[in-house]
Amino acid sequence: MVFALLHMRAVVRVQGVQICATEGAVFEVNRFKGSKVGDIICLGDVFHLGEGEHARVGTPTIEGASVTAKILTNKRAAKKLVIKRLRRKGFHKKHGHRQEISVIQIQNIQG
Fold first, then answer.
1. How far apart are alpha carbons 46 and 80 in whole angstroms?
2. Which residues, other chains included, contact 22 with Cβ-Cβ below 8 Å and sequence gap of 6+?
3. In what side-by-side order are the strands of the sheet with 66-76?
4. Residue 93, pLDDT score
5. How far are the Cα atoms of 29, 72, 88 from residue 76, in angstroms, in the given order?
6. What is the signed CA dihedral for 72, 50, 12, 61, rounded to 10 degrees?
7. Which one, of 15, 13, 32, 17, lies nearest residue 70 by Cα?
8. With a cut of 50, which residues of the chain have pLDDT below it?
């Protein structure tokens, strides 16, 4: 007899981005302002919850559903370079950007 492990899944809005979260999953998202490493945050905008026959879809969100996550680290992402040039003019400009990000781990999905 084969048993399938069913993990609770949820589609959640985090910092303006939708992610498909399962318990224990780790994500890099935009930095949470004023948060420290080890803080527990509640993500309240849950759009989809569950799998298969037991899935629930919100209109637009599911009432009473929430996802909690723990902040593992706050860091900066890799540098992205932007280079502008004008041909035959001798103009060139190099500009870099490093996004502030938080690494979060999904702790609990309730709904």
1. 31
2. 7, 8, 9, 10, 106, 109
3. 26-30, 100-110, 66-76, 40-43
4. 97
5. 11, 13, 36
6. -150
7. 32
8. 1-5
- Tracing tokens 């637009």 back to the chain, one arrives at 60
CB 57 within 8 Å of CB 63 = no
**Which residue in this structure is represented by tokens 């399938």?**
4
Cis preceding linkage at 60, omega within 30? yes
The answer to whether 12 and 27 are in contact (CB under 8 A) is no
Q: Name residue 62's amino acid.
A: I
- CA-to-CA distance for 98 and 15, rounded, in angstroms? 17
C-alpha 51/C-alpha 6 separation (Å) is 8
* DSSP three-state, residue 96: strand
pTM: 0.79
Torsions phi, psi for 58 (to 5 deg): -85, 165
Can you read off the two tokens belonging to residue 39? Answer: 């803080």
